[in-house]
Amino acid sequence: MNQTDEVSTWIERQSKPCSNCKEVKSFSEFHKNKVCRTGRHSYCRKCRGIQGSQSQLNKAAENGEDVRECEECELLFRSKNYNKCRNCRGKNV
Fold it and tell me: For residues 72 and 57, what is the distance between their CA atoms, to the nearest angstrom?
């Protein structure tokens, strides 16, 4: 199956894989983007949110603000009291 056939199949099914997390999700879980062939972004809403917040935290770190890296997932977060981000603190590992 070539790439054009794959895109046609995704459009028919109204679902596609996220380029970041690789999960197949419905179109409603992707922001609209007229430039993309499917009409949706390549990253799902959740992954785009993480990407955006990490970008903001990288800028904050460059400006000298107190930013920490999670021990488990290595994502940045703003907290002086913990060594894990909010997502990893809730997991029973």
Answer: 17
Are the C-beta atoms of residues 61 and 76 closer than 8 Å to each other? yes
CA atoms of 5 and 13, how far apart (whole Å): 12
Q: Cα(27)–Cα(11) distance, rounded to whole angstroms?
A: 9
* Contact of 41 with 30, CB cutoff 8 Å: yes
Instruction: Give the separation between CA 93 and CA 83, rounded to whole angstroms.
Output: 14
First to last CA, the chain: 40
Q: Which residue has the higher pLDDT, 11 or 18?
A: 18
**Could you report the per-residue pLDDT of 21-36, keeping only the tens digit for each?**
899 998 889 989 889 8
